[in-house]
Amino acid sequence: MVHIKRVELTNFKSFGGTTAVPLLPGFTVISGPNGSGKSNILDALLFALGLSSSKGMRAERLPDLVNNAQSRKTTVETLVTVTFDLSDYDGEPLGRNSDETDNGLSSEMEELGEETGLEIETETGKMPVPLGEPVDLEWTVARKLRVTKQGTYTSTYYINGEACTQTELHEQLNKLRIYPEGYNVVLQGDVTGIITMKPRERREIIDELAGVASFDRKITLAKEKLDAVKDREERSRIVEQELIAQRDRLDKDRSKAEKYQQLREEFQQKSQWETVLNYQTLQQQQGRLREQIEADDRTLTELNEQRQQKDQQIHTTSVQLEALNAHVKAMGEEELIALQSSLATEEAQQRQLQTRSAELETALQQTVTQIHQTEQELRQQYQTLDTLAIEKDQETLNLGQRQRERDTLQATVERSREATSQVAQQAESWMVQQTELHRQIETLQKTLDPHRTEQARLRERVEQLQRQLSEQQQSLATLGEELSQKTIALEGATTQRDATSQQVATLTQQVTEAETNLQVQQETQTRLLQEQRERQRKLDKLEAQHQAQQEATGSYATKIIAQSGISGLCGLVCQLGQVEPQYQLALETAAGARLGHIVVEDDSVAAAAIEFLKRQQAGRATFLPLNKIQGNRSNLPNLATMRNLPGLIDLAVNLIEYEPRYQDIFAYVFGNTLVFNNLSNARKLLGQYRIVTLEGELLETTGAMTGGSVSSRSSLHFGTDQGSAEARNIAALKERLEEIERILERCNRSIEETSQTVKLRSQQLNEVRQTLRDHQQQVSLLESEIKTLRNQQEQLRSQLEKNTQELNTAQIRLKNLEAEIPNLETKLQQDREVLAQLEATHSHSEWQQLQGVLRSQETELQQKENALRTVQQRLIEIENQQTRLQDKIQEGNQKLEAIRQEQKSLTQKLETVKIQLAEIHQKIQQTRVKVSQVEAKLGEEKKQRDQVETQLGELRLAKQQLDWQIEKLQETQQGRREQLTIKLEQIAAIRTELPEPLPNIPQNLDLASLQRELRSLQKRMEALEPVNMLALEEFERTQARLEELTQKLTTLEGERTELLLRIENFTTLRRRAFQEAFDAVNENFQTIFAQLSEGDGYLEIDNPEDPFSSGLNLIAHPKGKPVQRLTSMSGGEKSLTALSFIFALQRYRPSPFYAFDEVDMFLDGANVERLARMIKSQTEQAQFIVVSLRRPMMEASQRTIGVTQARGAYTQVLGIKL
Fold first, then answer.
1. According to the UniProt record, where is the region Disordered (predicted)?
2. Which whole-number Å values give the CA distances from 897 to 362, 617, 893, 894, in the listed order?
3. DSSP 3-state of 1173
């Protein structure tokens, strides 16, 4: 057993000079008076092995470890050497490297061994040893501390006399299962530390034992790689976005260039058509102009003749009219004209009143129609309300019936469960009997198979012996040849067996690794699925809360607008700003109703939304278009001069966070409003500025003051940091869920691949194992045959009698087997029949039948509960419909009352208009009578005068028409002659531009349509300019780069998913390692605590689902006391529990030696005895060095080392073997 053989202390603490403390395997107690330095021996172990800091060795600094008597020297040093006995060590070679000699044998010993020629056997081979010297397989560790007069110091570690670093030393100590984080040396403060440390620190001890740090390092390394991949992916994404933008831009330029090219070609073709059509049109126009000029010249001559005749007629008629006018005027014409004017005015008033009367009658008819419609709607609503009340009563009765059915069925299910449980309890004995029968059958089968094999072998042997006895002389000649053949066959079979065995080992390792990997992947999948469900539930909850808040924001009109799908909506004012919680009330008060105004991109969106509200009759809303809104920034106060005002905080618009594009919106909402801390400070500026306080008081520039208790019923609020935090939480949850989804997808593929690998490797392993079994059987058979042949060859001539005896023995054994095997087969058949009858018993089938009935009843119960919930939901819907109908009825009654009031007003107005119509009608009648009287007086004279006047007017009008025709025709003729000249010039010019040959032009195409098309093509071409004609080639190059980058991004995404899966697998392994360590330590703790306290205890994790964020509690139940936690125990119980925990840690990771420093100081005698017995019981597995003053501990030890300072100031050591 590896153990500490010797500790040498030179000037270490209380030890002056050099003191060697020999230590033996087993249980050693170090004892002595207080202050004698007995604990310094354990400090020396910690110092030499580098297992603790200076404070752990009860020193402020390392120089304090040097003996005080040496402080007067210029340079002092202390040296501690620990020698290990490695006589039973079978692990990896110790030393600084693999070139050093194994097991501590020096090169000098090899040289001496070569001189003497002696050798010893070791595990690594033969080693030379010197004569006359004992062989000690030792390994030495030393540490030297040199301290100068100035207080500086150097510390050096040595392994077998060679300097090394602390890291190198710990690597070698790890091979001996000695760890710095372990509990090889338990000092006085370690037990107290276990008691006083926090649960999380206690759990971290398990972390260290489980090697969680190594997984943390792997996770950290994987995360660093993941961050690097993410950075590369983000950079690639940025380049991708730039390429996509460039590609889209080039795509537009390419389409634009292609379209421009097509338009240009079409424009050139149609320009040629225009030239041809222009030439043809000009020729046609030239011919028509010549014909029109000739025709209009003839018409002009005829018109001049007609004008001369009209002049003569006008002169004659004018003379006649003057005579008639003089005669009519003398008879009263002016009075008639006045009466006619008055009559026209009265008739106009009558028509206006009639129109007004018709409008009032129409409006009155509409009000009557509205009254009828509203009354009809109210009657329908009342009927619906009555119907809902009846339906509610019916559903209430149905609800009671459903509840009774559910309760009855639930009672039936409970009875069925009880019956099933009883049958299951009865079936327990049946299962025990069945298991026993299986075991008996298996035992008989194991006995019967070797007997059958032996029987076959003996029959073959008997036959062989008989042949040997009858043909022995003949067989001697062939034995040599047969033996040679068997030997060659054995060599070949052995080679095949070894190769197959190596293949089995390789496949077994591959299957184990694949199964381990599969298990890790499955555990990772389970953990991720659980995390996915938890995070999805949390996300659903947060989104539901957020949705509820959004739905509760704003009026009915704003909600209708938000749901309309109109593009260009930015949101409510309250949704576009973020405020700090302390300013929320003040800013919401200052904004007032403008919180609910809707911000839109431009006024066209606002107009469309208003029209939508009109169509839906959804009320009114105020819209703030970004392109038109003007913030009120006039008369802003000078804050620089007002900073000294008590209580002033800032302008309201400066206290809200928003996007820059909404600056005018919030300037409009808040204007020049100031924010003060309280009302008393704000009142000093009342009437000068608009002011709001943090408590919600509002002071207007008019002097008005608003304040009082604050209502919390408003649903319009600015966003706060809490809302942003919720949004960030939702975004983080969605990101994590997407990440988990990708990891799960990759994990599922990995599980499927690994499962296929396990299946394939397992199948291969089974096949190879079968082959190995065949080879082993073949080798065994060949070895047996060779052995038999050799025996026959050696003894054939001299042992004929012995062969006869062997034949007799084989025949007797064969006869016995032939007698035993039928009995065993009969017994096996009987047991199988009993097992078959047992499995067909009524209890088994009854239990299965009851299980089927129970599942059917549970399914029916679930259906009843679903039906019950449906009825309950319907009742809630009916109550909601009743509430809405009552609200509509109330609105209808109010609307009906308003319409009736309007009907009354319209009736009064209509009566007034009718009275006015009667009065004006009477006036018109009177005026008409007067006109008739005057007209009768004038008589025929006026009629004759009017006829002559009408005739004169017609003649003058005819003459004017002739003059206009003549003048117009002359101008037209002049213009036509000028046009003819121009057309001739144009025809001569276009004739030179005609294409050769002339193109084919569609027959139905005219010049005007063609010119419109050309103008359209020209405008379309100008609209497309400028055009990038190189876009086609650039687009193809950009598309190729984008496809290459997309492939790269796909690869990076795969790498990122693979790294995420690797991190999750490391997390799974990390948790598994912790859980395995915890379970083992917990089991050890329960066993050890039961031995030490005669009670029971266990370890408990605060949150088993997340152990790495939890603490570790020690739960104990001392004999005769209730269950307690560590904090509620007495001092002795705490020490005993902490020691149990330390022993549990040591048992989980055993070491070759343990050292305890007065760990029994708080225990009573009985507990010290139990502790000593436990230590003694473990001395076969490890060396124990205990510093103690307690008699039970010393009595239980195998030897005691006494420590004293009786002579001089140095500690002295005395050994006593008990």
1. 90-131
2. 20, 20, 6, 5
3. helix
Which tokens is 779 given? 């080798």
Alpha carbon distance 419, 1108 (integer Å): 45
Q: Which long-range contacts link 382-391 to residues 24+ away (Cβ below 8 Å)? A: 382/889, 384/881, 384/885, 385/882, 385/885, 385/886, 385/889, 388/878, 388/881, 388/882, 388/885, 389/882, 391/878
Q: Could you give the number of structural domains in the chain?
A: 1
- Is residue 310 marked as binding? no
pLDDT tens digit sequence for 46-65: 888 888 765 567 777 777 78
Q: Say if residue 1107 carries a ligand binding annotation.
A: no
Residue 655 sits in a domain of what CATH number? 3.30.70.1620
> Could you tell me if 590 and 559 are in contact, meaning their C-beta atoms sit under 8 angstroms apart?
no
| Residues facing residue 493 across a β-bridge | none
| DSSP-based three-state secondary structure for 1124 | strand
d(CA 1020, CA 261): 12
Q: How far apart are CA 72 and CA 63, in angstroms?
A: 13
The span from the CA of 1131 to the CA of 1139, in Å, is 12
* Residue range(s) defining the domain that contains residue 705: 568-716
* Residue 685 lies inside a defined structural domain of this protein: yes
Is 131's pLDDT higher than 50? no
CA distance 858 to 368: 63
Nearest partner of 86 among 29, 8, 25, 163, judged by Cα: 25
- Flag whether 1131 is marked binding: no
635 is in an annotated binding site: no
Backbone angles phi, psi at 375, to 5 degrees: -65, -40
Q: Does residue 33 have a known ligand-binding role? A: yes
Tokens representing 681 are: 């400070």
Question: Are the C-beta atoms of 32 and 1203 separated by less than 8 Å?
Answer: yes
Name the token pair of 553: 């924001």
Kind of pairing between the strands at 27-31 and 1183-1187: parallel
For the chain, percent helix, then strand, then coil, each to nearest 5?
70, 10, 20
Pairwise pLDDT comparison (334 vs 1064), residue with the higher score:
1064
| pTM (predicted TM-score) | 0.48
CA distance 506 to 1080: 30
3-state secondary structure 972-989: HHHHHHHHHHHHHHHHHH
DSSP 387-420: HHHHHHHHHHHHHHHHHHHHHHHHHHHHHHHHHH
761 assigned to some structural domain: no
Closest CA to 1210 of 63, 114, 12, 283: 12
Question: With bands split at pLDDT 50, 70 and 90, how would you rate the model's confidence at 80?
Answer: very high
For residue range 698-733, what is the model confidence (pLDDT) as tens digits? 998 888 999 888 765 555 666 554 445 666 778 888
38 is in an annotated binding site: yes
Q: Which pLDDT tens digit goes with each residue over 502-541?
A: 988 888 888 888 888 888 888 888 888 888 888 888 888 8
Q: How confident is the model at residue 676 (pLDDT cuts 50, 70, 90)?
A: very high
Domain presence at residue 166: no
Question: Which pLDDT value is given to residue 141?
Answer: 93
Over residues 344-386, the pLDDT tens digits come to 777 877 887 888 788 788 888 888 888 888 888 888 888 888 8
Residues 698 and 686: beta-carbon distance below 8 Å: no
Residue 607 domain-assigned (yes or no)? yes
> Per residue in 26-36, is it b (16+ CB within 10 Å) or e — as a string?
bbbbbbbeeeb
**Is 113 annotated as contributing to ligand binding?**
no
| Paired residues of 599 in beta bridges | 571, 624
pLDDT of residue 82: 93
Place of tokens 């054939």: 796
Question: Within 13 Å of residue 519, how many CA atoms lie on the same side as its CB?
Answer: 8
**HSE (side-chain half, CA atoms, 13 Å) at 740:** 19
Q: What does the pLDDT read at residue 424? A: 59
